Amino acid sequence: MKSAKTLYIGAGLLGALVLAAIFAPLITSFDPTEQDLMNTLLGPTSQHWLGTDPLGRDVFTRLIYGARVDLAIGLLAVVLPYIIGVSLGLLTGWRGGKTDSVIMRVVDTVIAFPFYVLAIALVFIFGPGIKSIIVAITLVGWVAYCRIVRANVLVAKEQDYIHAARLTGLPTSRILRRHMLPNVISQSIVFAMSDIVLSILAIVSLGYLGLGVPIPTAEWGSMIQEGQGYITQQWWLATIPGLMVVYVGFSLSLIGDGLVARLER
Amino acid sequence: MSTPLISVENLSVEIKTDRGLLKAIRGVSFDINAGDSIGIVGESGSGKSITLKAILGLLPNNAHVSAGKIFVEGKDISTLDPKSRRALLSKNTGMIFQDAIAALNPVIKIGEQISEVPRYRLGKSKDESKAIALSLMEKVGITDSESRYSLYPHQLSGGLRQRIAIAIALSGSPKILFCDEPTTALDVTIQAQVLRLLNELRTNSGLGIVFVTHDLAVVNELCDDIRVMYAGRFVESGTVQKTFNEPTHPYTFSLLKAAPDPDQSVHRLFTISGEAPNLTQPVVGCPFAPRCFSVTSQCSESEPELLPIAQSKSACFNSVDHTKWAAEDSKEGARR
């Protein structure tokens, strides 16, 4: 029961943010990129709930519009590596032999690089922008899923129910899809929850480094970067987008914990 | 004589272990035909399960067939590509496992598991497949099949699970059913039900059965023929009736003697002293010699072959004279 609670609280917190992002135009009447140079660096007022930034843009508005960008990219940057990693993990674990050697050597190579070094290098190569962030995170991120699923496949492969399915002469595609997959993905789903946090963090970090979503699009990483010069006076400019990342991370890890308890029996 | 459905010739299997290469099976030959019922008995580690796995191509990664051939419908399966080998095997064979819950996929409804083969291998329509699955469920004695069709394995009792496993094994209408101790994990009354079911399938549908077990009573109940396995070889082969009444190999004799007899009260059950040999070491002489009660000098020199004696076959230099053994045995019993 406790796991159900954790799951629901996490889903509730995240859901609230997602709804806010989707219905952003209804919640705020400001435009996230509209400058108001007469009202820069305001503190919280009844009009500007979280004040304005150095260019007079409403911080609250930028925050929830930023959620659109960060959550969407974060999700996409997990879904793509997830699909690739799970498929390759399934294949490499099942086939074994040469296929396994080749794929696992590639995995080892990718893992040998620190995550950010590789991601930043790839973004440099592809040039800044949403597409290249997603491509870079996908190229780096699939290996974790591949490993997790492969390990589970190696165990499941020797289970009697897989033996039984093979013996009855079912097509391999059917065995992999219907018999193997549901029994080997639960761990990777749980990992994906924490991975979304990592990938959001990566997007924010890349944004902070100026390699992310091009300005002036509202995005938490660039907001932190822009706010950092004013940290002693207008501390909320850099702090609140940072707290948003913590908020998302917290709700996703609640979801993850709830899923662990539910899926791993 | 026509070619046997499955023919195993001089099969040997080696397993790579931490302690070295383990010769799990050392030259096993036998034929299986539709309608046969063969019981393979032996101690744990004698190689009986590995024999089944080798035939069905389920050997774990660290094991391989090191010698010998397996023919299915007269075709040497080692010459076939994996796909046609699997097709040939699955057309002719089915298998049920010791632990039915492990042999059923925990996340798929039982009905779907039974209807899969008709649907995805035999290419029947969805409704036809379901009808086939329902009739299979009835065939293996599951009442109320329609409502049980959409249950998950964990919602069933042990006996029902094994029945479902049998239904799945039968879904491709195989001619031979390989059974790897399918009743060991069940309690005695359920055991009897499953054995009765297998017996019915055999007599009514002419299903061939290869039954691996260490339970001699089960073999007596279900099988016509018996192969006694020891240290990766058959040491005795014959009809169940003949072998149980007049064992020719000292090991078989000891095994039968070790089985409790409900009609006789004994102070202590007979045990075969010693352990089965370590098969990572080369076998010199008869592997059973250290535990045998009728050893001669010849036994430690070379390993006896499985040769015909009376109506059976026995791998023993002194194969026997069960009357003499029984006489000695009773004398010894009187002394105690």
List keywords for this structure.
heterodimer; A: 265 residues; mainly alpha; MetI-like fold; B: 336 residues; alpha/beta; Rossmann fold; 2 domains; four-stranded antiparallel sheet; 12 strands; globular
Explain the layout of strands and helices.
The complex is a heterodimer of chains A (265) and B (336).
Chain A (H helix, E strand, L loop, with lengths): L1 H21 L1 H4 L31 H37 L1 H16 L2 H12 L3 H28 L2 H8 L4 H13 L1 H23 L11 H8 L8 H28 L2
Chain B lengths: L5 E12 L2 E13 L4 E6 L5 H9 L6 E10 L2 E2 L5 H11 E4 L3 H4 L6 H12 L4 H14 L5 H4 L9 H13 L5 E5 L7 H18 L2 E6 L2 H7 L2 E6 L2 E7 H6 L4 H9 L48 E3 L2 E3 L7 H14 L1
Parallel strand pairs in B: 3-8, 3-9, 6-7, 7-8
Antiparallel strand pairs in B: 1-2, 1-4, 4-5, 9-10, 10-12, 11-12
Helix pairs in contact in B: 4-5, 4-7, 5-7, 7-8
Radius of gyration of chain B: 21 Å
Q: Any low-confidence stretches of chain A, pLDDT <50, length ≥5?
A: none
Helix tally of chain A? 11
Number of helices of chain B: 12
Kindly provide the name of the CATH class of the largest domain in chain B: Alpha Beta
Task: Describe what you observe in this structure.
- The complex is a heterodimer of chains A (265) and B (336).
- With 265 residues, chain A is mainly alpha-helical.
- Chain A has a single domain, classed as Orthogonal Bundle (MetI-like fold).
- Chain A is 75% helix and 0% strand.
- Chain A is built from eleven helices and no strands.
- In chain A, helix 3 runs parallel beside helix 6 and helix 6 crosses helix 8.
- The longest helix of chain A has 37 residues.
- Chain B is globular and about 70 Å long.
- The N and C termini of chain B lie far apart (52 Å).
- Chain B has 336 residues and is of the alpha/beta class.
- In chain B, the strands form two sheets. Chain B has an eight-stranded mixed beta sheet with strand order 6-7-8-3-9-10-12-11, with helices on both faces.
- In chain B, helix 4 crosses helix 5, helix 5 packs across helix 7 and helix 7 runs parallel beside helix 8.
- Chain B has two domains: 218 residues, P-loop containing nucleotide triphosphate hydrolases (Rossmann fold, 3-Layer(aba) Sandwich); 89 residues, no CATH class.
- The interface between A and B is medium-sized, with 19 and 30 residues.
